[in-house]
Design brief:
The chain folds into 2 domains: 220 residues, Acid Proteases (Cathepsin D, subunit A, domain 1); 201 residues, Cathepsin D, subunit A, domain 1 (Beta Barrel), CATH 2.40.70.10. The protein is built from 11 helices and 27 strands. A 6-stranded mixed barrel has the order 3-4-9-5-8-7. A 4-stranded antiparallel sheet has the order 15-14-20-21. The chain has a 4-stranded antiparallel sheet with strand order 18-19-23-22. It is globular. This is Aspartic peptidase. InterPro entries: Aspartic_peptidase_AS (IPR001969), Pepsin-like_plant (IPR034161), PEPTIDASE_A1 (IPR033121), Peptidase_aspartic_dom_sf (IPR021109), Plant_Aspart_Prot_A1 (IPR051708), TAXi_C (IPR032799), TAXi_N (IPR032861). It comes from Trema orientale.
Length: 488
């Protein structure tokens, strides 16, 4: 009975949200842009420290309350461009985030508090203006979805709807109340709207006539909106799937490897909505690589997450089993690993992380000097100085499923740079392991046990197969994949 009611609610919501004008193409190709600021960070240490700090803050935010965590980390800012309205179309730039389930962006008038260095109104495109009559009613299922825990009656009361109207469910003239989202080091207040949204950079073009999104007039620390690709009912894939299942039931992205080098992110990373031709399946791949799949796990506390089970990891030929809670998600939302495009570095629970580091250090630390001061400056550990070519063991992740192992490229887990390049001392080569300690199991109660960050996803096509409830990985030359798909 409960599942029947859920399905009824889902389809009622979907058909009340949107009407689409789309091509009958099975695939839409969008460019993801990744930019690295040359001025925001004065050294490699500063960039890495900021990235590790915010990766950890986002991960731990998942374990506090029901609010979502939005991507604020340098190195995780993969953005896509959309336009709002049509007379004239107004551009918006959004983070692409699989770790949240709502599309929101700043709307005029907009005030961004504590956004120095992130937002300059004189050089940034003005926030779009949304008509007042585009607000969503407080009795809409979309309103309840945005507020998550509130009933329709509560929302109508919050909107100032008279009691007699609440009793008769006649609150059509009252807008959905503002909702509050919090994230690692900031927050926002937004209101739900329905309006025309289009993807001008897609091929073919996509127009969503009545798309539901959040409009923020005030934000703390974050001037850029978010395109939520999570499993929630208001996410971009969910709304798209209501009228175009072939586009909304499957999406993938392929992140061009950058190693924090701004010169290497000039090429777009392809975001693919739908399933591209089987004949193109091996275009832009690496040695004919096929997808390795693992099943999605349901998380009752964080239903928008793409959680998967992790069996363990290998360092060289040494297999390190993962703790049991990483293999599944329990009824309280504990456990599993989240595949997240909005977190930079992979976070592992302390006991598992320490076992991986111990084996890595046993192989690397016995012949290379430990760079403890670099660890303090960057938040990464272990780090090593080296003079000649350094031998690094392979690292692989083993997911639940038949033949579901993913071997990471060396550049995805070991970052090498010149220390002292700022002129403060002798330049020395240094390398750091880019996996992070997420804390002990008690600290992770009520949320995921681990997160697979986007840095470790570079150079893979990561596919989210919503119809078959699975996530897949395949090695790709992502820039070549973009070129080849753009030719068709």
């Amino acid at each position: 009975m409960a599942s029947t009611l859920f399905l009824l609610y889902y389809y009622t919501l979907c058909f009340s949200l949107t009407s689409f004008s789309v091509s009958h193409s099975k695939t839409l190709l969008l460019p993801l842009t990744h930019s690295l600021s040359q001025t925001q960070f004065n050294s490699t240490h500063h960039l890495l420290k900021s990235t590790t700090t915010r990766s950890a803050a986002r991960f731990h935010r998942h374990h506090r309350g029901h609010q979502v965590s939005l991507p604020l980390s340098p190195g995780s800012d993969y953005t896509l461009s959309l336009t709002v309205g049509s007379d004239p179309p107004q551009p918006v730039s959004l983070y692409m985030d699989t770790g949240s389930d709502l599309v929101w962006f700043p709307c005029a008038p907009f005030e961004c508090i504590l956004c120095e260095g992130k937002y300059d109104p004189s050089t940034t495109a003005p926030p779009p203006t949304i008509p007042r009559n585009a607000t969503v009613s407080c009795k809409s299922p979309a309103c309840a979805a945005a507020h998550s825990s509130h009933s329709s009656s509560d929302l109508c009361a919050m909107a100032g709807c008279p009691l007699e109207s609440i009793e008769t469910s006649d609150c059509a003239s009252f807008s959905c109340p503002n909702f509050y989202y919090a994230y690692a080091d900031g927050s926002l207040v937004a209101r739900l709207h329905k309006y025309s949204l289009s993807v001008p950079t897609s091929s073919p073009s996509l127009v969503l006539e009545n798309f539901t999104f959040g409009c923020a007039h005030t934000a703390l620390g974050e001037p850029i909106g978010v395109a939520g690709f999570g499993r929630g009912l208001l996410s971009l894939p969910a709304q798209l799937a209501a009228f175009s299942p072939q586009l909304g039931n499957r999406f993938s992205y392929c992140l061009v490897s950058h190693s924090f080098d701004a010169e290497r992110v000039r090429r777009p990373s392809p975001l693919i909505l739908g399933r591209y031709d089987e004949k193109q399946k091996r275009v832009g791949d690496d040695n004919g690589a096929e997808f390795v799949y693992t099943s999605m796990l349901d998380n009752p506390k964080h239903p928008y997450f793409y959680s998967v089970g992790l069996l363990g990891a290998s360092v060289g030929k040494k297999n390190i089993p993962a703790p049991e809670f990483l293999k599944r998600v329990d009824g309280r939302g504990n456990g599993g690993m989240v595949v997240d495009s909005g977190t930079t570095f992979t976070m592992l629970p302390a006991s598992f992380y320490e076992s991986v580091v111990a084996e890595f250090d046993r192989r690397v630390g016995r012949v290379n000097e430990r760079a403890s001061e670099i660890e303090d400056k960057t938040g990464l550990t272990p780090c090593y100085y080296y003079d000649k070519v350094i031998n690094i063991p392979t690292v692989a992740l083993h997911f639940v499923g038949n033949k579901s192992s993913v071997v990471l490229p060396r550049t995805n887990y070991f970052y090498e740079f010149l220390d002292g390049g700022d002129g403060s001392g002798k330049k020395r080569k240094v390398g750091c392991l880019m996996l992070m300690n997420g804390g002990d199991e008690k600290e992770l109660s009520g949320g995921p046990g681990a997160t697979l960050g986007n840095y470790q996803q570079q150079g893979f096509e990561v596919v989210y197969d919503l119809e078959n409830r699975r996530v897949g990985f395949a090695r790709r030359q992502c820039a070549s994949l973009w070129d080849s798909l753009n030719q068709h």
